[in-house]
Amino acid sequence: MATAEQLKALLRSYSDADGEQFISVALQIAAHAARTGKSKLAEELKILVQDVRQKQRTQRVGGAVPIVQPSGELAKLLAVTYPSVRLSEMVLSQPIKKQLHLVLREYKQKSKLREHGLSPRRKLLLVGPPGCGKTMTSRALAGELKLPHLSIQLHSLITKFMGETAAKLHSIFELMPKTRGVYLFDEFDAIGSERAAANDVGEIRRVLNSFLQFLEQDDSDSIIVAATNLASMLDEALFRRFDEVIHYEKPTASEAGELILNRLARFGIDEVGVQQASEWALGLSYADICQACDAAAKESVLKDSNLVELAALKEAISQRQNRRAFKNEAEERE
Q: Does residue 266 share a domain with residue 240?
């Protein structure tokens, strides 16, 4: 039979929806049964584990969260998806990778931490320029943890009627303990702006105060992600309420090169060309570089070629550099 520690580990992995750990413990129990002469039990356990592995490829099993379909007012406030993207598919700096892997590690072992009076990092503030992976990060966390991704729809959340926005916020935070998931507040500066701002109105202050209160009181198993391009506009009190603040930057030349190779993996392109392209792409966001790669790839497909021409990639990158320069000039005139 399974040992007491194995049974506790089995239940803990189920509670944490950690399928890999669940299978690992089950195989340990099967091996223990085989060593103690219970060969039939060991074989049956192995067959069951194989069945679980097969099901994991096509559906959510074990402690995973069921399909979420918000109804009523919540249906207007939340856009729900089940991302398949993983962190390994993203090009991120080493410090950001380290922070995110720590979040995943603590979340997967949250029961173990709570047994010792500790809480996992699960309230994250992502700051940085547009197109640098903040939204994709929240989707990747959902994909890694096999959780639903619930994106808050600001156009439905923020209203002109006094008290209504705070009431809608409250309904979202009430859902978090009932429906475990990754909740994304994108363009967070819309509700998290500095309370002492000159153009502020009383209702915005009330909304922010409500958010701060809900965030501090939340002790659910959901992950809360707030993302903004305008960190300077955020109220100082917000930074103290989040477990982790992650700063994103535009890609370096080496990161741009890695991204180009990943994006064009199905096409041929020489490494010297990638090195040149990564230099041309400096200053662009991850999203800009992906768009440039896609434009060059389309050109190859339309020419019935499996090779991305360096000239086409250079032209696509140049167009996006020009757009960036035009946008900067427009912002300076304003």
A: no
Distance CA 206, CA 187 (A): 18
CATH code, domain with 272: 1.10.8.60
58 confidence band (pLDDT: 50, 70, 90): very low
What range does the domain containing 275 cover? Answer: 253-333
Question: What is the C-alpha to C-alpha distance for residues 157 and 159, in angstroms, rounded to an integer?
Answer: 6
Residues recorded for the chain? 334
Burial class (CB in 10 A: 0-12, 13-18, 19+), 47: exposed
Query: Is residue 285 situated within a structural domain?
Result: yes
| Of the candidates 303, 321, 70, the residue with the CA atom closest to the CA atom of residue 178 | 70
Pairing state between β 149-152 and 182-185: parallel
The pTM (predicted TM-score) of the whole model is 0.75
Does residue 187 share a domain with residue 140?
yes
Q: Is 151 helix (H, G, I), strand (E, B) or coil?
A: strand
Amino acid at 124: L
- Which range, of 49-53, 199-203, 314-318, averages the lowest pLDDT? 199-203
State whether 44 and 131 are in the same domain: no
146: left (phi over 0), alpha (psi -120 to 50) or beta: left
Integer distance in angstroms from the first to the last C-alpha of the chain? 73
The answer to whether 69 touches 125, Cβ cutoff 8 Å, is no
Helix (H, G, I), strand (E, B) or coil at 291: helix
Examine the domain organization and report whether 159 and 191 are in the same domain: yes
**Rounded-to-integer distance, Cα 289 and Cα 232, Å:** 26
